[in-house]
Amino acid sequence: MANHQHAAPAPVGGSLVNIVTLSCGVLIALMAAILVVRFLFGLGAVTNLNDGYPWGIWIAVDVVIGSAFACGGFSVAMLVYIFNKGEYHPLVRPALLASLFGYTLAGAGVIFDLGRWWNVWNMFWPGSINPNSVMFEVAVCITLYIVVMWIEFSPVVLEKLGKEDARKKVSKAMFFIIALGTVLPMMHQSSLGTLLVVMGGQVHPLWQTPALPLLYLLSAIFMGYAVVLFESCLTSTAYRRKLEMQMLTPMAKIMLGILAVFIVVRLGDVIVRGALPKAFAPSVEALMFWLEMACFIAPLVLIGAEANRRNPARLFLAGILLMLGGALMRLSGFLIGYETGGDFNYFPTLAEVLVTAGLFAVEVLGYIIITRRFPVLPREDVQAAH
Amino acid sequence: MGEIDGIFDTSRKTLEEIEQRLEMPRREFLQFCATLAVTMGLPSGAEAAVAKAIEAAKRPSVIWLHFQECTGCSESLLRAEHPTLEKLILDVISLDYHETLMAAAGHQAEAARKAAMKANKGKYVLVVEGAIPTKNNGIYCKIGGQTAIDMVKECAADAAAVIAIGSCASWGGMPSTIPSISGADSSPTGSAGVAEVLGKPVVTIPGCPPNPYNFLATVVHFLTFGKLPEVDKLGRPKFAYSRLIHENCERRAHFDAGRFAMQFGDPGHRQGYCLYKLGCKGPETYANCSTLGFGDAGENNWPVGCGHPCIGCTEKGVGFQKPIHQVAKMLNVTPPLQYPRIVEEQGKAASFASAAAVAAVAGAAAGAAIMLTRNLGLSHAAEEAERAKDAGGSGKRASVAKAGE
Amino acid sequence: MGTRRDFLKGVMAGGAAATACAVAVPAAARETRPRPPEALGLLYDSTLCVGCKACVAACKQANNNPAEFSTVDHLWDTPLDTSGYTFNIIKMYRNGTMDQKDQETNGYAFMKTSCMHCADPSCVSACPVSAMTKDPVTGVVGYNPDKCIGCRYCVAACPFGIPKYQYDSPTGRIGKCELCRHRHKDGHYSACAEVCPTGATLFGKTSDLLAEAKRRLAMKPGEMNRFPRGRLRPAQEKALQGKPEGKGVMMRAGWRDEPDQSYETPAGKYLQHVYGEKEYGGTQVLKLSGVDFEKLGMPDLPPDAAAALSETIQHNLYGNLIMPFAVLGAMTWVAKRNVKPEDESSDKEGN
Q: CA-based, 20 to 30 A from A114: which of A34, B6, B265, B357?
């Protein structure tokens, strides 16, 4: 059915040494140095974590938001393979690559944050696991999904290495891997929201609801598309390639559809639970709520009309706003709207910020290296010279 | 030290006289003065003033009355061995009337009292030992045909200072205990303290018996400074009664660690654990027993030191009133003390560096996004313009990429 | 291409699935669990507490924890809150002139902060590796550092802020009260109750402690009453259970025998509320006070545990992996139809 004419993926080529990669290298080196201190002297040595905020930005940003940003691969794969929209096929590989990095690094971020990381095998040890725990489900799903994504991505590597036989074998099982690759993220992205349910009244009523799994799943999906918009525009600009407007414009429409459903569920839930008055209280939480809602509603205005969806600037901006909105919802649930009682303060240390920046730097650097050296982005005939 | 040297320089002769008069070596005398000064909580150097006051030998006349009592207070005073205090009692002060100690008896004794009062009008010190019965016009205690009420009023009228020694004189003490029979609202004789009978506050030295040093220090304070020491609202000198026994108790560490004697003779009791659970009233009793000991029997020889809970004898409403083994009320938790509040601020707020880093990241991201959006918008505008100009033309998209820089 | 139709079909299928699970949720709801019948616990009576902090010191010793300092002199153990090294602490409520104990305005009151040993604990539900467990018999919420991965989900989940992590250590553990379960085998009960001079912290079976709490609430303020100290003795348990008087079983559960420590003291002025009787489905540690519990730092909690809701959602979505496998099956079937082997779809694009 995928009767669309697409250019085959090809390495972009070009130099790996430039200002962006060098900056990334510096950030990664800083992160490594901080992590040495963290593993030698404990979390308290580099973070501001405390018992009122046991989870800081390494969890809220690196893992929860980071993995939601990494939903591009899952969202696009679902579009292409499940809803059989072959025309989006060229978006799969770059989106998958970004997801791969996002998730792998989220996994790494968890290890940095784990206080007793050497015991992490218990998470998979039948004698230790606790199936009642939301986190157990999240951890297992994310781990499996990382493996699944590497398999999904393996044809790229095998292609580069010229291992045709292996690549064909993988290709035969690909349909199952792809199915797994849609189910697993659906499971854990929803469960990332369910993580908050057990915290009960400690999470502000604007973000604490039994509908959390649905909200987190829906937002993860449209954030996935938003990330693809963002990443496609960014890559095209950075590599001076042609914008993939013919795919981005219709995809944006699908994104808006899911966004609309999400907004209805989000507002409906707040109203049904009677939490709406809290949104009008003079509090930081109320401000965050409206900031978040603004980020969700603005794209409807920005690219609601078909004509506006052809404007890459508007698409890009809408993508950023949706990423921001989803990120704010997660940040508010996990950090800003979390109050355990008592007078606890938390603001990330410079070291925490640098580690988070370092993780994103790994992602950017990896993306650059792989797209320049491996067949990820579609081959482009008309290409401006570097 | 200057003052001490001064004493030796200027009044060596006087000191020698004192030595003879008090039959006390000079060194011991100075030690005694220092002890009293410390008891009163006076600053260093004050022992010199005390010594001067005593050596001046202006022996004030003291009239000591006994009413409803056991003479334990006098006995306690006499037992003070540090130095031989009876010498001091007889030589530092002029004890003109004391029913137990004076040689005179009968009308002779009463005449001596009257004579002393007349001779030292407005200058003598009145010490009262024992409670004063007030029921039925005080007929339950008469001396020489005079009721205790009349006698104390008569003596107090011209006294320079009135000191109530012992718990009985302070507030009624043991005799004022209300019997546990139905309908009883006062003690059988209506015993009351001196202050109540006189209708004005007096200095009280409660205790059963009180520490003799607390009494002596009060008298010497009067000698030294010409006035009575500062007292609390119950008339007790603050130098002796401003701290709870519990605060300086030698067993306090056991209390803090939760190590308690459960019953007399149990392992905890034998190991000197805290006696709180046996009913020790130290936590609600103001006195200096835990620092000064009790009587003058030597180091650690006070009720708690030898294994019995404090009964709170210096505290009205506690001693002789609360059952001896009833658990005490804790008074020293009265805030503020070193307790964490219900909510304590914890965790660090933003440092300048981290706040700046977050702001920088956010700023850079926002800036980049704006730039990129603007460029994308420009390229889109260019493309639209081109499309409008050249409707059929396609493939000339290089400009798009260029604009997207 | 029929893309629109396919898309709509997909949306409808997804919607149906979502509706199905939404409907399934209330049907299979996991109820908040009650306390085990033989649950052990503590009764903390704020009106009896004299703030001596013997329980804080004893807890440190029993759990072999180091001192924590909050003053410049670093001489005394002065923790400001429970922490990875302080499992029990006495906090003080202060208001105005602080004249009167157990009085809300111009008064002060004490509150013991330690693990409540919930009937349906959030920390146990949250822990992914079963490092936090609830004993099926005693109900004690215990911690196993050999399994713990240090994720601190328990810290975040607990409504009382009890599990705390040792952030200053590269091998930090979670620290929390385990009701001195390591001392039970020697016949010792909770150190805090063992040393409490006034019986403000009392150890016993929660069912008996609840009866004792109700007995206290019925007292007239200021009236002399007998209060047990240490732990509830067998005879007292029998009396509280309404059984005929008698000695009871002397060596129940192997506790060391000790003399009856009960004593007489005036009853406090209680709020008519046993904290922990119903909160979050009940806790095994109960509290009495003369001052509003929220002012003493005890949160106002609903009668249903958050763990019950969380597990209801979790098991309805993932119970026995039925839903995930169903969705996976459907996805596989769809993907099988749509996924062309890479050879055709990428290299020789365009069939």
A: B357
> What are the tokens at B379?
């390229």
Interface contact A183-C324, CB threshold 8 A: yes
Answer yes or no: do B190 and B248 share one domain: no
Note the pLDDT of residue B55.
67
Which of B345, B372, B397 is opposite residue A343, by nearest beta carbon?
B345
Q: How many domains does chain C have?
A: 2
> What whole-number percentage of chain A has pLDDT above 70?
96
A248, amino acid identity: L
Q: What would the pLDDT profile of C5-25 be if each residue is shown by its tens digit?
A: 554 555 455 555 554 444 444
Tens of pLDDT, residue by residue over C295-341, are 999 999 999 888 888 888 888 887 767 778 888 888 888 877 777 65
Residue B209 located in a structural domain: no
Range of the domain at B328: 243-333
- Reported as type and span, the H/E element at residue A289 is helix A284-303
Give C331 to chain B, closest Cα distance, Å.
36
Residues C60 and C140 both lie in one domain: yes
Q: Are C54 and C197 in contact (CB under 8 A)?
A: yes
Mutate to test the interface with C, among A116, A273, A334 (most CBs of C within 10 A): A116
User: How confident is the prediction for chain B on average, in pLDDT?
Assistant: 81
Task: Tell whether C230 and C338 lie within a shared domain.
Answer: no
Give the pLDDT confidence of C196-247 residue by residue, as tens digits: 888 999 999 999 999 999 999 999 998 889 999 988 887 778 777 777 665 5
Q: How far is CA A275 from CA A272, A341, B281, C159, in A?
A: 8, 20, 55, 20
Same domain for C237 and C333, yes or no, is no
Closest partner residue to B343 among C76, C108, C297, by Cβ? C297
Do strands B61-66 and B94-98 pair parallel, antiparallel, or not at all (unpaired)? parallel
Q: Which of B353, B357, B401 sits opposite A242 (nearest CB)?
A: B401
Q: Are residues C83 and C11 in the same domain?
A: no
**Total-model pTM:** 0.80
Q: Is residue B173 located within the same domain as residue B293?
A: no
What domain range includes position C227? 40-303
Preceding amide of B209 cis, omega within 30: yes
Q: What confidence score (pLDDT) does residue B89 get?
A: 62
Residues in C closer than 8 angstroms to B262, CB to CB, are 258-259, 261
pLDDT score, position B82: 58
Of C171, C311, C345, the CB nearest to A132: C311
Select from B146, B175, B204 the last residue of a domain: B204
Sign, CA torsion A342/A347/A349/A353 = positive
**CATH number of residue B102's parent domain:** 3.40.50.700
Nearest to B320 by CA among B141, B178, B204, B194: B178
User: Taking CB atoms and an 8 Å limit, are A384 and B377 in contact across chains?
Assistant: no
Q: CB B256 to CB C80 under 8 A? A: no
Residue C295 sits in the same domain as residue C324: no
Nearest-neighbour CA in chain C from B137: distance (Å): 36
pLDDT in tens, C226-236: 999 988 887 77
For chain B, how many structural domains are there in total?
2
Section B23-51 average pLDDT: 72
Residue A181 has pLDDT above 70, yes or no: yes
Is the same domain home to B162 and B260? no
Please, are residues A179 and A145 in contact by the beta-carbon 8 Å criterion? no
Fold classification of A19-43+55-340+351-373 (topology level): Formate dehydrogenase/DMSO reductase fold (1.20.1630)
pLDDT band at B35 (very low <50, low <70, confident <90, very high): confident
* C 263-302 residues inside an 8 A Cβ radius of B: 263-265, 295-297
Give chain B positions within 8 Å (CB) of C54: 255-258
**Residue B358 is assigned to a structural domain of this protein:** no
As beta bridge partners, residue C141 has: C134
Per-residue H/E/C for B15-27? HHHHHHHHCCCHH
Is 90 exceeded by the pLDDT of residue B358? no
Reported for B264-268, long-range contacts at CB under 8 A and 24+ positions apart, including other chains, are B264/B307
Which of B316, B333, B350 terminates a domain? The answer is: B333
Q: Provide the 8-state DSSP code for C345.
A: I
Give yes or no: residues C10 and C131 share one domain. no
